[in-house]
Amino acid sequence: MSEYLIKNGFVFDPTQKLKGDQADVAIKDGKIVDKVANPKVIDAKGMTVMAGALEVHAHVAGPKVNIGRIYRPEDKLFTFRPTEGSHHMEGGFSIPTTYKTGYAYARLGYTTVMEAAMPPLFARHVHEEIRDTPIIDEGAFPVFGNNWFVLEYIKNKELENTAAYIAWLLRVTKGFAVKVVNPGGTEAWGWGLNCLQIKDPVPYFDVTPEEIVKGLIEANEHLGLPHSMHIHGNNLGNPGNYTTTLDTLKLASGYKAKNKFGREQVMHHTHIQFHSYGGTKWADFESKARPVADYVNKHKNITIDVGFVTLDETTTMTADGPFEHHLTELNHLKWANADVELETAAGVVPYIYSPDVFVSGIQWAVGLEIALLSKDPMRCYITTDHPNAGPFTRYPRIMKWLMSQKARDEQIKAFKASDKVVAQSEIANIDRELTLYEIAQMTRAGPAKCLGLSGIYGGLKPGLDADVAVYDFNPEKEHKPMEIEDAFSEVKYLWKTGVPIIMDRKFVSEGKKRTLWVDAKVADNPQVMRDVKEKFVKYYTVTEKNYEVTGKHFIPNPYAIEVDATH
Amino acid sequence: MNTVTLTSKAKPELFLEADNITPDIFAGKTNEQIAALTLYEGSAKHPLGEYYDVSGSAGPTAAETRIVIKGDATRLKYVGMKMTGGEISIEGNADMYVGAWMKGGKIQVKGSVDAFAGTGMTGGEISIDGDAGNYLGAAYRGDWRGMRGGVIRVKGNAGSDLGYFMNGGTIVVGGNADVHVGTHAEGNGKIIIKGNAKSKVGGQMVGGEIYIFGDLEVPMPTFEYRKDVELEVDGTKAKFALFEGDTAERHPKRKGETVFGKIYMKY
After folding, report:
1. What is the pLDDT of residue B72?
2. pLDDT (0 to 100) of residue A2
3. A2, β-bridge pairs
4. Mean pLDDT on A5-28
5. Distance (Å, rounded) from C-alpha B201 to C-alpha B218?
6. Which of A66, A194, A310, A525 could form a disulfide with A164 if both were Cys (CB 3.0 to 4.6 A apart)?
C-alpha cells in the first residue's frame, strides 16, 4: 500500500505556516499530496506531526569517524544492543556503528543527514559507510579549504579554474557542497604551524584564510551550487576567538547568493558555539555569544548551526589537525592524527564535557545563548557538530533546554561552579522559550532552505518528499521539561519518501536510502584537467583511476542535483 | 547475610557472559527468578539454570547477599561485574573480567583467574588464592580509566600488564609479575610485588607507586635513583631504594613539586 493519511495531528510546518493546527497529512507514491483515495489511516490525534528533520552538519561516515571507532572500543562497551531478527546490532555512543547511526537518526525523526567533512582522497570510504547507513538520505561535503589546487588557483585569482576544479571534485567524489575547515591552518599544520587569524599567511602558498574564504564564496556562487560555502573558521575553541569569528563572518559582506534553489546565504558558519568565546585564557574564559548572534541577526546572507555542548563524554574529530593536537595537550587523552596528501588532515581526541568543569558549563551556555539570541530560526540550526560537542542522540535534550527556562535553571544549579558559569555567561538572564514552530524552522524548513533542498525536504507541502515524523506529544498540554525530552527521543511513526519506517515505535523497514550529490556542469577547462593529471602523476600516491567514486558498489542509489554552470 | 549457592551441572560449549551473577542482581529475587537470568553463550541467550542449580536464598539487598559458585566456573566471564556490595565466593577457577568495574563488596576466588580481573574497579576487595592472568586491575581495551580504588590480593603470580592505567587502589601480588607493570599509571595507586618482576616496570608512568621485594630483571633507563628509605610495606619493614620516573613522560606539578611515579626496590 502506498497511500497513507495521518489524521488529526497537531501539524508544525513552517513551509505552510502551520503552527500546531490540527490537520491531515496525505502521502501517495512517496510524495505529500492533497488527497488520497484509499489510504491506510493513522490516527495522530493528540500528537505532534512534523516533516522529517535535516541534519546540516555531523561527522557520521568516513576515515576519521572510523579512527574513532577503532581506537575507542570503550565507547561501545556498555552501549550495545544485540541483533534482533532483521534489525542489525547497534553499538557506540559518540561514534555509533553505521547501522546505529541510521536507526538512531530515524528514531529522532531525522531523515536527511549531511556528513560534514569528506577528505576527497577517502571519498570511497565515506561512500561505503554512507551506503551501510540505513534509512536516511545522505550527502557529504568534500573539504576544500586546504587543498593545493584551490590554494594555487586562489593565489593566482583564477576564479573560473577554482570553480571548474570544484565541479570536477564534486563529480569524482560524489560530493554535495564546498566545505572549508580552518582555511589554510590545516595545510600550515603540515609545517607544524597554524593560521589562527584570517590574515595569517599559509606557508609556501602565501595566501591567507581571508583570500581562501572569499575565493571559495565567489566560486560557489559562480557555479550556483545548492548549498553555500560551509565554513569551520580559524581559531576554533580558544578563549577570545570571537573576534576571529566576526572577522570571518565579515568576509561574506557584499556577496549575494546566486542559485536556482531558493538559498539566500553565501556563507554557512558551522558549530559557531566553538567560535564565540571571550577572555584571554581559561581562567577568564567567558561567553561572547551576543556579539556573534547580533552580527548574524543583522546579516541575511549568513546562516549558522550551533554545535551545542551536551555535557557528555564524547569523541572530538575534525579536519582541523592543529586544534586536535592542542586539545590532547590539554586533556592528555589519546590522540590520532592523519595527513591526507594534497588535501587535508584530521585529528581525533576523546573529550569529557564535565558539569564539574566551569569551562564546559560556559560552553554549554554559549550554545544555548546563540540559539536563544538568534532572531531568525530559519537561519540558525540545531547541531552538536556530532560527535564534537556531543552525540546527535542528545537533540531531544537540547530541545528541552531551548523550550524550557526551568530545564536550563535546573542544569545551571547542577554545575559545580554554578556561580562562575552564571557570572561569565548570560544564560541565566535569558527567559526566551522556543516554540515547536521555531524548532521546526531550526530543524526542518531552515536547514532544507540553507542546503538548497527546500524543493524536496523540510516541509509537508504537497509535492515535497513524504518524510513525516509523528511524536507522541500533545502541544496543547502543560509539560514538565523531562516530558519534552522523552517525547522527542523516539518517534511514534516515521515515513521516509513515503515508506513506513517506524510504526508504533517499531522498525518495519530500512527504506531505500539515497546518496545526494551535486552534478555541476561547467565549460571544458583544459587547464584544470591538465593540472589534475599533473598532480596525480607528481604527488598523489594513487592514480586518477583509483580516485573516482563511481558505480553501484559505492553508490547503489544516487540522487544527483543538477546545476548548469556552463555560462 | 543470606547465601545463594550455584552448583555447576553442565559445562557450556563456549564461554558464558555472566555479568548477571552479582549480589546486586540476585538481591530480592527468588531462586526461580535467579535461574531465569540470562547468560550469553556466544550470541545465544541461555537461562542461568541451564548450567547451574540454584539453592539457598538471596538477601533483600546486595550487601546482605552472598553468592557461592561450586564446581566449574572456568568458562564464566564477568562474575561480579559492577557489584556494589555483598560477597561472591568462587570455589574453583574463573575466566576473564572477574569483579570488573566493581564498586564494593568482596570476591574470593579459591583457584586462579584469567585476564582483566578488577578492570576499572573503584572499590571493594578481590582475593585470589591462585594466579591472576594478564591485565589485572587494568583498564578496558582503549580506556584510560584503570583501577581507581579498592584492593586486589593475589597469592600466586600475576601476568603481564598488571595495573595498566591504574589510577588508585592497591594490588598486592604474593608471587612474581610478568612484563609491563603500572604502564601509564597516574594518581595514587599502589602495586606491591613480593616476588620478582621482569621488565618495563613503570613505563610511561606519570604517578603512583610500585614496590618490588624480589629482583627486577631489566629496569627502565628512564627512572632515576633518588635515595634510600625505611618503610613498612604490607606488614614488612625494610630498606628500599627509591627511583622516580618515567622521565620520558609528562609530569604534573602539585604544590610546586613535580609529581613522579615511584618505584621502591627492597634491599
Report:
1. 86
2. 87
3. none
4. 98
5. 8
6. A525
Which residue of A69, A70, A72, A74 to mutate against B (max B Cβ within 10 Å)? Answer: A74
User: Is residue A30 pLDDT above 90, yes or no?
Assistant: yes
Test A73 with B142 for CB contact under 8 angstroms. Answer: yes
Grid coordinates in use for A21? 493546527
Subunit contact A73:B43, Cβ cutoff 8 A:
no
Question: CB distance from B143 to chain A under 8 Å?
Answer: yes
Identify the band that residue B238 occupies on the pLDDT scale cut at 50, 70 and 90: very high
The closest alpha carbon to A232, from A129, A164, A144, A309, belongs to A144
Nearest CA in chain A to B43: A82
The average confidence (pLDDT) of chain B is 97
The whole-number average pLDDT for the span B91-109 is 98
Contact yes or no for B142 and A332 at CB 8 A:
no
The closest of A139, A152, A132, A211 to A179, measured between CA atoms, is A139
Pseudo-torsion of CA B176, B177, B178, B184, nearest 10°?
Answer: -170
Contact A74 B142 (CB under 8 A): yes
CB < 8 Å to A315, chain B: none
The crossing angle, in degrees rounded to 10, of helices A405-414 and A358-373 is 170
Please judge whether B144 and A333 are an interchain contact, meaning their C-beta atoms are less than 8 angstroms apart: yes
**Can you tell me the ipTM of this complex?**
0.91
A260-306 pLDDT, tens digit per residue, is: 999 999 999 999 999 999 999 999 999 999 999 999 999 999 999 99
Half-sphere exposure of residue B134: CA atoms within 13 angstroms, side-chain side: 7
Q: Is residue A1's pLDDT more than 70?
A: no
Chain B closest CA to A90's CA: distance in Å? Answer: 14
Q: Using CB atoms, pick whichever of B141, B144, B250 lies closest to residue A73.
A: B141
What residue has cell string 550469553? B40
CATH code of the domain made up of A53-78+112-455: 3.20.20.140
Residue in A83, A332, A334 nearest the CB of B250: A332
